[in-house]
């Protein structure tokens, strides 16, 4: 009887040990599978954002069809594709096309051929206040207008038959990381702050800072200063420790929804994207202020772009 009892106890011990090993293995498998699923199956909303992001670049008002950006000040500028012009449009444009005369906020266009104004009227002459009104001029596949953004004032031209538009744009992303979708809190200023910011071309411009976004990441507290986009969403230009290596050296952009009444706000770094200046030099990208340089790696969102420079065919 004693031997039988000892034998049964031995069997029970062996069973318990094996059971514990099996449970540990199952837990390990679950963790691995759950982690992989998390990485390989990001939210459908995020996948849709990536598709829309790429489509927007190819759109008529996107950045890939830009064919020139020409700074302007007070004075008279001849326009055309000829080398002798002050504003030299692309080679497949008319050689001697006209001129633009700028007097403070007023610009007058004198054209040698009819152009289409705002998709409706034909005209050879048009004068307006470009600080107040946006007008588009079209001839063939080209469209141009006065561009004012991020401290740059100039005439920007698009070519809807840009020779590189048929090329596929290769944009690489960090893997989706749930932990980079961060709950934060917005501290609104009693009075919005007007701040002097810098663009990639070395110029300066003023923008409004409505407050500060506070968040915690890896048990450390950080903050960001947003501006407000025309849509009402918050716009953040930020830098981090991936810049220049894994991501673009000039920082990245991020849109986020405005805060709730209690100040709650979400920062989803998975939707951080490259400024348009990585695709074209005919852009006026702002660069991060010192307050928006994060001292850690944001391994989320778009990686460094190493593809085609779409403005290269016009330079």
Which properties best describe this structure?
globular, 315 residues, Tumour Suppressor Smad4, alpha+beta, 16 strands, nine-stranded mixed β-sheet
Task: Please give a quick description of this structure.
The chain is α+β, with helices and mostly antiparallel strands and 315 residues long. The protein has helices spanning 2-40, 44-58; strands at residues 66-71, 75-80, 87-88, 98-103, 106-117, 121-129, 137-139, 142-149, 152-159, 181-198, 204-217, 220-224, 227-228, 234-238, 252-256, 264-268.
Give your account of this protein's structure:
- Strands 1, 2, 3, 4, 5, 6, 7, 8 and 9 form a 9-stranded mixed β-sheet that branches. Strands 12-11-10-16 form a 4-stranded antiparallel β-sheet, with no helix packed on it. The chain has a 3-stranded antiparallel β-sheet with strand order 13-14-15, with no helix packed on it.
- The radius of gyration is 28 Å and the shape is globular.
- The longest helix is centred in the first third of the chain and has 39 residues.
- With 315 residues, the chain is an alpha+beta fold.
- The protein has 3 domains: 37 residues; 155 residues, no CATH class; 94 residues, Tumour Suppressor Smad4, CATH 2.60.200.
């Amino acid at each position: 009887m004693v031997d039988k009892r000892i034998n049964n106890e031995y069997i029970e011990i062996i069973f318990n040990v094996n059971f514990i090993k099996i449970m540990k293995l199952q837990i390990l498998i679950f963790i691995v599978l759950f982690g992989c699923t998390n990485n390989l199956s990001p939210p459908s909303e995020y996948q849709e954002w990536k598709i829309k992001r790429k489509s927007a670049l190819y759109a008529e008002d996107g950045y890939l069809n830009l064919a020139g950006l020409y700074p302007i000040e007070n004075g008279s500028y001849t326009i055309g594709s000829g080398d002798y012009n002050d504003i030299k449009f692309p080679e497949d444009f008319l050689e001697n096309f006209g001129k633009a005369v700028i007097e403070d906020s007023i610009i007058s266009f004198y054209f040698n051929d009819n152009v289409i104004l705002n998709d409706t009227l034909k005209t050879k002459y048009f004068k307006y206040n470009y600080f107040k009104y946006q007008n588009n001029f079209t001839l063939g596949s080209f469209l141009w207008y006065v561009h004012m953004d991020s401290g740059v004032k100039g005439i920007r031209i698009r070519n809807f038959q840009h020779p590189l538009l048929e090329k596929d744009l290769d944009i690489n992303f960090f893997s989706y990381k749930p932990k980079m979708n961060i709950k934060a809190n917005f501290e609104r200023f009693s009075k919005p702050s007007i701040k002097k910011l810098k663009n990639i071309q070395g110029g300066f411009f003023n923008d409004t800072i409505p407050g500060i976004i506070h968040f915690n990441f890896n048990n450390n507290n950080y903050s960001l200063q947003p501006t407000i986009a025309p849509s009402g969403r918050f716009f953040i230009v930020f830098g981090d420790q991936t810049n220049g290596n894994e991501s673009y050296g000039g920082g990245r952009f991020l849109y986020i929804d405005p805060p709730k009444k209690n100040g709650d706000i979400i920062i989803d770094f998975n939707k951080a994207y490259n400024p348009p200046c990585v695709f074209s030099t005919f852009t006026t990208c702002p660069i991060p202020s010192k307050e928006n340089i994060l001292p850690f790696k944001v391994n989320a969102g778009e990686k460094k772009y190493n593809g085609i420079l779409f403005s290269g065919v016009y330079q």
